[in-house]
Write a structure and sequence with these properties.
Elements lengths: L1 E6 L4 H17 L3 E4 L1 H9 L5 E2 L7 H10 L5 E5 L9 H13 L4 E2 L2 H9 L3
Parallel strand pairs: 1-2, 1-4, 2-3, 4-5
Helix pairs in contact: 3-4
C-alpha cells in the first residue's frame, strides 16, 4: 500500500508529527510513503523514510496525481491550509478531483487522516 503525503507550508510541522505518531503502524503494515518534495524533506529530517517527488508548485502534486491515476496510490493525506493563498491551487484541485474520480480516500485535515489511518488496523 502507498500513501501520498502532502502539506501546505503552514501545516508541515503538523504533518511530521502526525506521520511520526503513526510510523509504527505504517511499518507494521509495510506502507510506503511518497510525498511532495518539501513535505518529504521535512519528513526525512525527522528521520522518516519517504520517496520524494518535486515540490508542489514545481509539479509534485501533478506527479502524485499521475501515480494515483495509474493505480499506484491507495490513499492521500493532504493537510491543507484553507486560509492561505497557494500559487499551485489548480494542481491541488486537480489532485483532489482525481481522488474523487478514481475513488481514492483523501483526508485534508488531521481528524479525517486519523480516521483513515485507524481503518488500516
Amino acid at each position: 500500500m502507498t500513501i501520498a503525503i502532502i502539506a501546505h507550508d503552514g501545516k508541515k510541522a503538523d504533518m511530521v508529527g502526525f506521520i511520526k505518531d503513526h510510523h509504527q503502524l505504517f511499518n507494521r503494515h509495510n506502507i510506503r510513503l511518497i510525498a511532495t518534495g518539501t513535505t518529504g524533506a521535512h519528513l526525512e529530517r525527522a528521520g522518516l523514510e519517504v520517496e520524494k517527488m518535486l515540490s508542489g508548485p514545481m509539479g509534485g502534486d501533478a506527479q502524485i496525481a499521475s501515480r494515483l491515476v495509474e493505480g499506484e496510490v491507495d490513499m492521500v493525506i493532504f493537510f491543507r491550509d484553507p486560509l492561505g493563498k497557494h500559487p499551485h491551487e489548480v494542481d491541488v484541485n486537480m489532485l483532489m478531483r482525481l481522488c474523487d474520480v478514481h475513488n481514492v480516500p483523501l483526508a485534508t485535515n488531521m481528524a479525517a487522516a486519523t480516521r483513515l489511518v485507524q481503518s488500516l488496523e
